[in-house]
């Protein structure tokens, strides 16, 4: 199309070079000043209609020219029709009539204008050198035209899986799912007074908030309008939301939905308390408890039951007495943002039996009371030190030894070796020379014993092979029953055993030969030969040994005979040793973000009996959360003995990255003048590791003008020759992974519309 508008503007500029009239009133000084221009009766653009330049202007003005143009700057002639998807504007070239002039203040035009009652811009002011009349250009831009009949109407929008914030929680950016034909471009949280919720703000109890969702039509869809407003029903998690037009966008393609909500409290249906020490005769009450998430212990008391049913409160220095009955009374209080459910159950330590959590106030969501009765157990023997012996220390080239002799009152259920980097050794590994290794001996008290405790800390000393060792608790088990004894060793170099001396004695008969290793002697080795050893033989060899010297090894007579190891019978494992049972269920696992356990089974296949976990054995773990080698320690309890140590691998998990492409638009006239930043074209969630984004393909016409950041923000550089259209751009998003997640790349196609 002919660029008529450009020619007009050029002519205006040329004429202004030749004018000599100042921007003031005429010589007569009696002209009527025009401060406002009103243009009415203009037929606004409609899809399929021809431009109609007929209009009415306010008094004192003459219309010299009216011209429509699209957002490319192309003139729309009277023979052409307005098209769907385009934005049009119109310019009016107006001239003052004789006796009129435009309002000018401080040599600057001070005139406003409206077209059909809508605000318009005024510019291009000049004074004609031909007739002295003043001229201006009035411009107004209309909303983009949409051919509603060719688009699929969307009258109902259902947003699901929207995460409503809890009390005390910060805001989040988890996008809800939407029905087909639309997408949620963005959303925000705000107060009812429309104050935005920042990242540092938390949602408060009993305060009403709103979530505002900005919803856009996908290509080929539209929102139906009634009286210029969207006729659309929007629900969020099945709750009806208010609907309004998005400011700055056509109501036919964009709207916002507003959902009011009051944050809820997180529900607590299990009240788990760990660290409870049951009454034991001769011991003082212990009040330390650890709670699970969402609540705290408000009070904790011990009481003595009396014959008259009047409980007596115990003081911290009182001791439990054998043969009497006691009970505890614990009141727990929900933290801010949490609430107990009506049927909340209470659990102590790792017990599976639950206790009723009684209501104690008029607000059962806030407080609960727990009470359990106990009869004190007999006071155990206190263990203050543990000395271990017979641990085979590491030697280069040898395999780890897992046997050790323990003192009275203690059971060893595992011996584990690791190197200085905390890498676990297996039975098949060998020690390397001149390296430091650690032996961890896991122990528990036998029935009737306990470890010494001072000021709530383990007060047990330990030694291994006479060497001082470190004592610590393990895996959350009470320090009163379970401990780990750790000590370090530096490997010694292996030495070759000295070969026996095969040289015959220099004096025959002076040394009593030993019996051959493979033959059981009929007499003790120390039995004297036929001739006394002290007799001096007249000829060499005249004193005959019990067996020929040539068939005997040359081990000295004074060394006692040792029975060959191969003939020593090996005692079979007792039937109650868990090492005797068939173990299954240990497999390599994939990282989950939580501590990983195994479904372990121990079966006596001969008697078709399966051991019961937590009754016949307990299972503990080391390094069982992050990627690497985890250790399983299976320890017999009750009627069984022994322990089993196994390892398994935790491998990296697949990267859960999710990438959602979003159609974005830029204005043609804007991108022709300057660079435009397009945010949100790629929505990335759940990515693990640093992000990297790359444009892998795009139409040749636009590719060199595109740039993308690592976070998916696209920049369209200044594109002087840009043309309207829809451009498909492939973007590769890579999450580089972490120590626990693999790297993963996802390629998606986004649409960039130039309008």
Principal-axis shape: elongated
Percent helix range = under 10%
The unreliable regions are 1-28, 502-574
* CA-atom Rg in angstroms: 46 Å
What percentage of amino acids are in beta strands?
35-45%
Cross-sheet strand order for the largest sheet: 3-2-10-11-12-6-4-5
Distance between the termini: 17 Å
Average of the residue pLDDT scores: 81
Overall SS class? mainly beta
Largest sheet: 8 strands, mixed
Please count the helical segments. 3
What is the β-strand count?
Answer: 58
Q: Keywords, please?
A:
3 helices, six-stranded mixed β-sheet, eight-stranded mixed β-sheet, mainly beta, 755 residues, elongated, 58 strands
Report on this model:
There is one protein chain. This protein is mostly beta strands and 755 residues long. It is built from three helices and 58 strands. A hairpin with a 5-residue loop joins strand 55 and strand 56. The longest helix is centred in the N-terminal third of the chain and has 15 residues, at 4-18. 22% of the residues are buried. The model is unreliable at 1-28 and 502-574 (pLDDT under 50).
Write the layout of secondary structure elements.
Elements: H1 4-18, E1 32-34, E2 36-40, E3 56-57, E4 61-70, E5 75-76, E6 88-96, E7 100-102, E8 104-105, E9 108-109, E10 112-115, E11 118-127, E12 134-141, E13 152-153, E14 156-159, E15 182-191, E16 209-217, E17 221-222, E18 225-226, E19 229-230, E20 233-236, E21 239-245, E22 254-261, E23 266-274, E24 290-291, E25 295-304, E26 312-313, E27 326-334, E28 338-348, E29 355-356, E30 358-359, E31 367-370, E32 373-374, E33 381-383, E34 385-388, E35 410-419, E36 436-445, E37 449-451, E38 453-454, E39 457-458, E40 461-464, E41 467-472, E42 482-490, E43 582-584, E44 589-590, E45 601-604, E46 609-610, E47 617-622, E48 628-636, E49 643-651, E50 658-661, E51 664-666, H2 668-671, E52 676-678, E53 682-685, E54 691-697, H3 700-703, E55 706-708, E56 714-716, E57 725-735, E58 744-754
Parallel strand pairs: 1-7, 2-10, 13-17, 14-20, 23-28, 33-37, 34-40, 44-49, 51-58
Antiparallel strand pairs: 2-3, 4-5, 4-6, 6-12, 8-9, 10-11, 11-12, 15-16, 16-22, 18-19, 20-21, 21-22, 23-24, 25-26, 25-27, 27-31, 27-32, 28-29, 30-31, 35-36, 36-42, 38-39, 40-41, 41-42, 43-45, 45-46, 47-48, 48-49, 50-53, 52-56, 54-57, 55-56, 57-58
């Amino acid at each position: 199309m002919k660029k008529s508008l450009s020619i007009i503007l050029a002519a205006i500029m040329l004429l202004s070079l030749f004018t000599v009239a100042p921007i003031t009133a005429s010589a007569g000084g009696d002209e009527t000043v025009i401060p406002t221009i009103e243009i009415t009766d203009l037929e606004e653009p409609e899809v399929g209609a021809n431009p109609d330049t007929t209009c009415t202007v306010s008094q004192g003005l003459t219309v010299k020219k009216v011209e429509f143009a699209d957002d490319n700057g192309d003139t729309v002639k009277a023979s052409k029709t307005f098209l769907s998807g385009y934005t049009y504007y119109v310019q009016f070239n107006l001239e003052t009539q004789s006796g009129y002039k435009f309002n000018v203040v401080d040599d600057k035009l001070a005139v406003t204008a409206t077209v059909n009652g809508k605000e318009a811009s005024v510019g291009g002011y000049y004074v004609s050198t031909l007739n002295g009349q003043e001229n201006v250009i009035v411009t107004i831009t209309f909303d983009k035209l949409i051919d509603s009949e060719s688009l699929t109407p969307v009258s109902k929008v259902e947003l699901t899986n929207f995460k409503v914030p809890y009390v005390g929680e910060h805001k989040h950016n988890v996008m809800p799912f939407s029905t087909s034909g639309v997408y949620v471009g963005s959303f925000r949280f705000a107060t009812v007074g429309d104050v935005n919720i920042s990242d540092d703000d938390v949602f408060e109890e009993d305060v009403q908030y709103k979530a505002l969702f900005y919803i856009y039509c996908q290509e080929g869809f539209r929102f139906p309008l009634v009286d210029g407003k969207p006729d659309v029903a929007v629900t969020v998690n099945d709750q009806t939301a208010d609907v309004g037009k998005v400011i700055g966008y056509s109501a036919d393609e964009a709207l916002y939905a507003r959902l009011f909500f009051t944050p809820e409290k997180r529900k607590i249906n299990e009240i788990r308390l760990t660290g409870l020490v049951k009454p034991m005769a001769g011991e003082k009450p212990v009040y330390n408890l650890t709670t699970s998430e969402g609540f705290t212990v408000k009070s904790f008391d011990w009481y003595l039951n009396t014959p008259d049913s009047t409980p007596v409160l115990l003081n911290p220095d009182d001791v439990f007495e054998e043969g009497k009955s006691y009970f505890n009374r614990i009141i727990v209080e929900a933290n801010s943002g949490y609430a107990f459910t009506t049927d909340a159950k209470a659990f102590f330590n790792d017990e599976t039996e639950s206790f009723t959590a009684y209501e104690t106030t008029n607000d059962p969501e806030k407080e609960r009371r727990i009470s359990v009765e106990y009869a004190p157990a007999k006071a155990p023997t206190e263990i203050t030190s543990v000395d271990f012996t017979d641990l085979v220390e590491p030697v280069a080239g040898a395999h780890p030894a897992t046997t050790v002799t323990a003192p009275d009152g203690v059971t060893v259920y595992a011996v584990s070796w690791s190197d200085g980097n905390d890498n676990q050794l297996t039975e098949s590994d060998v020690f390397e020379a001149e390296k430091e290794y650690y032996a961890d001996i896991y122990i528990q008290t036998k029935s009737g014993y306990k470890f010494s405790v001072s000021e709530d800390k383990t007060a047990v000393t330990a030694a291994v092979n006479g060497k001082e060792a470190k004592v610590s608790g393990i895996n959350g088990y009470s320090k009163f029953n379970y401990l780990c004894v750790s000590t370090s060793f530096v490997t010694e170099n292996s030495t070759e055993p000295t070969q026996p001396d095969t040289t015959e004695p220099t004096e025959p008969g002076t040394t009593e030969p030993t019996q051959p290793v493979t033959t059981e002697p009929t007499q003790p080795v120390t039995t004297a030969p036929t001739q006394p050893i002290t007799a001096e033989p007249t000829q060499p060899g005249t004193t005959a040994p019990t067996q020929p010297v040539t068939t005997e090894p040359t081990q000295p007579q004074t060394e006692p005979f040792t029975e060959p190891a191969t003939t020593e019978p090996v005692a079979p494992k007792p039937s109650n040793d868990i090492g005797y049972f068939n173990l299954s269920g240990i497999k390599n696992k994939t990282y989950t973000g939580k501590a990983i356990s195994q479904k372990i089974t121990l079966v006596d296949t001969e008697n078709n009996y399966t051991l019961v976990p937590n009754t016949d054995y307990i299972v503990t773990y080391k390094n069982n959360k992050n990627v690497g080698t985890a250790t399983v320690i299976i320890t017999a309890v009750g009627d069984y003995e022994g322990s089993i140590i196994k390892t398994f691998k935790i491998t990296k998990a697949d990267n859960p990255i999710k990438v959602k492409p979003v159609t974005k638009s830029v204005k043609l006239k804007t991108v022709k003048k300057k660079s435009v930043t397009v945010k949100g074209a790629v929505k990335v969630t759940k990515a693990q590791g640093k992000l990297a984004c790359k444009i892998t393909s795009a139409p040749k016409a636009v590719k060199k003008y595109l740039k993308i950041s690592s976070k998916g923000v696209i920049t369209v550089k200044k594109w002087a020759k840009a043309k309207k259209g829809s451009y498909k751009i492939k973007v590769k998003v890579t999450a580089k992974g972490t120590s626990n997640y693999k790297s993963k790349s996802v390629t998606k196609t986004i649409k960039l519309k130039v309008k």
